[in-house]
TrEMBL record:
Species per Swiss-Prot/TrEMBL record: Marinobacterium sediminicola
Main location: membrane
InterPro entries the record matches: N_methyl_site, T2SS_protein-GspI
Residue intervals passing through the bilayer: 12-33
Cellular location(s): Cell inner membrane
UniProt name for this protein: General secretion pathway protein I
UniProt keyword Metal-binding, yes or no: no
Length: 132
């Protein structure tokens, strides 16, 4: 029998299997990165929605002519978003003993928006109001 002197070209089975393992590992890493990016994007969208709702609720409170200390709670029309508003008189640090003779006093307004299991966003501002 005569042997052909031309070398055979092509891949061995082992080379093909190694290439498939490398390809599968690379695709797995890419899928994991894609899933993390999607999760981060969803959380950012929820946080942006909560910020928009908190600003809306804060604008509603600031538009009132009277501001009374206390706490209010409620639900937004969107599923899973709740809010809590706290209005309290504010004293500047170091001026607690100062007696104000004016009826105009500063109020601290805290608005918190809750969603999901443990997600929360809080906005705080000060506003001058008339003492009750």
């Amino acid at each position: 029998m005569a042997r052909s002197e031309t070398p055979q070209s092509g891949f061995t089975l082992l080379e093909v299997l190694v290439a498939f393992v490398i390809l599968a590992g690379t695709l797995g890493v890419m899928m994991r990165i894609n899933a993390q990016a999607l999760d981060t994007s969803m959380r950012a969208a929820e946080r942006q929605q909560a910020l928009m709702l908190a600003e809306s609720q804060l604008d509603r409170v600031l538009a009132r002519s009277d501001l009374l200390p206390g706490t209010e709670r409620g639900d937004f029309e969107l599923d899973g978003f709740r809010w809590q508003l706290e209005v309290s008189p504010f004293t500047f640090p170091g001026q607690e003993e100062l007696v104000m003779e004016s009826r105009i006093i500063p109020y601290r307004i805290d608005i918190s928006v809750y969603w999901g299991a443990a997600s929360e966003l809080q906005l705080t501002t000060l506003r001058l109001g008339v003492a009750p």
